[in-house]
Write a structure and sequence with these properties.
Blueprint: H1 3-11, H2 20-28, E1 33-36, H3 45-53, E2 57-61, H4 65-77, E3 82-85, H5 91-103, E4 108-111, H6 119-124, E5 130-135, H7 155-161, E6 167-171, H8 176-185, E7 193-196, E8 204-210, H9 214-224, E9 228-232, H10 236-248, E10 253-256, H11 262-273, E11 279-282, E12 295-300, H12 307-314, E13 324-330, H13 332-339, H14 341-345, H15 349-362, E14 374-376, H16 379-385, H17 390-402, E15 406-414, E16 417-420, H18 424-433, H19 438-447, E17 456-457, H20 460-467, H21 471-483, E18 487-490, E19 493-500, H22 514-536, H23 542-549, H24 562-570, H25 574-588, E20 593-594, H26 595-601, H27 607-619, E21 623-625, E22 630-633
Parallel strand pairs: 1-6, 1-7, 2-4, 2-5, 3-4, 5-6, 8-13, 9-11, 9-12, 10-11, 12-13
Antiparallel strand pairs: 14-19, 15-19, 16-17, 16-18, 20-22, 21-22
Helix pairs in contact: 2-3, 15-17, 20-21, 25-27
């Protein structure tokens, strides 16, 4: 099938969105391509369609386990065979997945970046018939971006073993410096092509409010804008508090953050997607990979720390092309606090070393060992035990992560998996000797096809219902089968994880790259300055401010943001000017008049227009306005 037939057959679309076909054509011509498409712009189709049009397997590198699982499930629902490898999977699970990728009829292999240079992956790489490398969230490869992830730097090493395989890098937001860095770090060929969709969203109105009472302003917004809403907050506690506030005011709302268990997150998300919940109040853990076109308003209850995050989150409104609103609420205190974030988020070298030493002692890692080991990690308990400020500990660990020393995932949901280690004859013999486990074995075989071939995801709750027994009994018997060596069973895991990417450094060999660290801080402070400027901007079209930041200037204002609206609303025609000037002269008469009395007398005239005419008349020497605001005619 050609690319149009593939699009219709598997996605049901008659035509590509803007730039999609151009990107796909470049990839099919064997060129490296950088695609900057806004949130909801259809990035995945740009690599999935060309991969389907070619023989072989597409290697997709993605940073978030939730995104990997979501895309793999979506492909499977379209009858497109796909596999995934990510952190937290056991050696056996990874090996079986790679064997299937080599010998099975699969089109996509999704891999988290830290898996790329493992010995096992490199062992199987030559046998994989890779036709395309797709790098999702490509901004993660740049130290100068807002979400740098060191494992992304390993992608270039894979290219050396696949020299003729094109690379397509995709992201929703990257400045010119980050774009250049992506192309350099991914070793793009000289015939590279870059595609950048316009940052113009003709249907999306941006507004910024300095709100004395954010609660009241939020209620006012949701009462005036009907339809589905997202409200972004900075803290988990705040999501619940704000959701409670909305419910008290008869707005159907719920809250969402990464600290909830997997089932709760899924339930809340699905309820919102199906419009059973009107407003979801959430941290930025919500939204990635969710394609809900009819969101009418996105409210930022707090100021994000960069325009990249703001643009991506605000862009979840109005994907259906109908009028939608992105509203940012702020206080002057927030902007002051943002100015201080550089020193908080980038602790000094001694602090980072102190946290590293405490962490290694907490995990009981001996010097010279630990590489590749993962641990459940409670950062609150760790900080409390070592009497560390939790923010200091968090950002010190983030610094260690960006140095490639460890990785820290805030919340990893890893579903239970199972794989039968023996052949069918041995399994029948085992059942004969252990009749108490026969029912569970048969339940596994009936519920999960492929359990002899590779580790399958299992759901203990569903299995318990199927067997009409308690979940504790199922869990206990699964562990018994594992003890006997019949089953490889990994229970569901849902805790924050730390993975050591290097052996513990000896005290005298501890070091981090301070030059890069300080440069990252400087870039962070530059991004903070840009979001503060965006908030404080009162004249320039907000869409134009965003587009200029991303090096894609717009030729014309949007005419629907707050700044455009205020500018248009305050423009005065010559006829209107004459009318207002006449009313000013009539009101002032022969006696001086205080400005506040003038405003009261001419309350039907908009304050901004009245002041503009007064300023003009004063400049033309037709009247004077004293420092005390007294208006006198000349």
């Amino acid at each position: 099938m050609n690319i149009h037939q593939i699009l219709k057959e598997y996605w049901g679309y008659d035509a590509f969105r803007p730039l999609q076909e151009d990107i796909i054509t470049a990839v099919l011509e064997g060129k490296d391509a950088l695609a900057l498409l806004p949130t909801g712009g259809g990035k995945s189709i740009c690599f999935q369609v060309p991969a389907m049009a070619k023989d072989g397997l597409c290697l997709v590198i993605s940073p978030l386990i939730a995104l990997i699982k979501d895309q793999v499930e979506q492909l499977k629902r379209r009858d497109i065979p796909a596999l995934s490898i990510y952190s937290g999977m056991s050696f056996l699970e990874v090996k079986k997945t790679l064997q299937n990728a080599v010998h099975g009829n699969f089109k996509f292999l999704y891999v988290s970046p830290e898996r790329l240079e493992t010995k096992l992956f490199l062992e199987y790489l030559p046998a994989l018939t890779i036709n395309l490398i797709a790098v999702d969230e490509a901004h993660c490869i740049s130290q100068w971006g807002y979400d740098f992830r060191p494992p992304y730097l390993r992608i270039a090493n894979i290219r050396e073993q696949l020299p003729c395989v094109p690379v397509v890098a995709l992201t929703a937001s990257a400045t010119k410096k980050v774009q250049d860095d992506i192309c350099e770090k991914l070793q793009f060929q000289k015939n590279e092509e870059r595609f950048q969709q316009s940052f113009e969203r003709a249907n999306l109105s941006y507004s910024v409010f300095n709100a004395p009472s954010k609660q009241n302003k939020l209620l006012e917004i949701l009462q005036n804008v009907p339809g589905t809403a997202i409200v972004y907050c900075k803290s988990r506690k705040q999501t619940k508090d704000v959701a409670d506030l909305l419910r008290m005011n008869k707005i159907n709302a719920d809250y969402y953050h990464a600290g909830l268990n997997h089932n709760d997150r899924n339930t809340k998300q699905e309820s919102w997607i199906q419009n059973k919940t009107r407003a979801i109040v959430c941290t930025n853990a919500f939204g990635m990979g969710i394609d809900k076109p009819d969101v009418r308003v996105v409210v930022h209850y707090d100021v994000p720390d960069c325009l990249e995050n703001y643009y991506q989150e605000a862009g979840r409104a109005g994907r259906d092309g109908k009028r939608a609103y992105a509203v940012l609420l702020y206080s002057n205190k927030e902007l002051e606090d943002l100015h201080q974030q550089g020193s908080i988020r980038f602790p000094d070298e001694a602090t980072i070393k102190n946290v590293y030493t405490a962490l290694m002692n907490h995990l009981q890692i001996a010097a010279g060992s630990g590489e590749g080991i993962s641990f459940d990690f409670d950062i609150a308990a760790f900080s409390n035990y070592f009497k560390l400020n939790i923010l200091t500990a968090t950002y010190a660990i983030k610094a260690l992560e960006q140095e490639g020393i460890l990785s820290f995932s805030d919340a990893v949901f890893k579903p239970a998996t199972a794989f039968i280690n023996v052949n069918r004859n041995d399994l029948v013999e085992f059942e004969r000797q252990h009749p108490e486990l026969e029912e569970l074995i048969k339940g596994l075989l009936r519920s999960y096809s492929g359990i002899f071939d590779y580790p399958v995801t299992i759901y203990e709750t569903q299995l318990a219902k199927f067997l009409h027994t308690e979940i504790n009994a199922v869990h206990y018997n699964l562990l018994k089968l594992t003890e006997y060596g019949i089953l490889s069973y990994s229970p569901q895991k849902e805790k924050p994880q730390i993975t050591l990417l290097q052996n513990r450094m000896y005290n005298d060999s501890y070091r981090i790259n301070l030059t890069n660290y300080n440069t990252r801080r400087a870039h962070f402070e530059k991004r903070v300055a840009a979001i503060i400027q965006f908030v404080n901007e009162k004249a320039t079209c907000r869409s134009m401010v965003i587009a200029t930041y991303f090096n894609a200037p717009l030729n014309k204002p949007c005419n629907i943001c707050d700044n455009c609206f205020n500018k248009n609303d305050n423009d005065i025609s010559s006829e209107e000017f004459k009318i207002i000037a006449g009313k000013i002269f009539a009101a002032a008469g022969n006696n001086p008049l205080p400005l506040k009395d003038m405003q009261l007398h001419l309350k039907t005239i908009k304050k901004e227009k009245l002041l503009k005419v007064l300023q003009y008349l004063q400049a033309e020497n037709k009247l004077t306005v004293s420092v005390d605001g007294i208006i006198s005619l000349k």
